[in-house]
Amino acid sequence: MGAAILLLAAMFAFEDPPKDVIDFFRSLATALGDAHRDGSARAFLEHFDTSMPGYVEFRDRIEAMAAEGEVGAAIDFVNVKAAGAKMTLDLDWVLEPEGQTPRRAVLQCAIEKRGKKWKVTSLAPLDFFRRE
After folding, report:
1. Average per-residue pLDDT for the chain
2. How would you class 22 by CB atoms within 10 Å of its CB: exposed for 0-12, middle for 13-18, buried for 19 or more?
């Protein structure tokens, strides 16, 4: 399985997300793909607010997944709504954990700009990242 793949095809009728948001999700997907090779999911998890609902369980699932093998990810923007330094997005996410069946779902995500960086403040459903 290759490293993370990030597809950023806008599939909505209005504006594309800003370049920094596209770069943020590219970095997020790449960090997930590199987690097994790096021996840590820390770089991926830095994209998330630790006070996000369900963060501790999410962190544990991601760390376990990365410890088991490479994880491929493809993320498409389906719907994007901006409100100042906050955005809500519907993301068509394909997850390919090594040794597990690939899965696909539309996840609801909220991000918030903190200083010059974006952080994921909510992501649902988190069960998408459970081990099969």
Report:
1. 88
2. middle
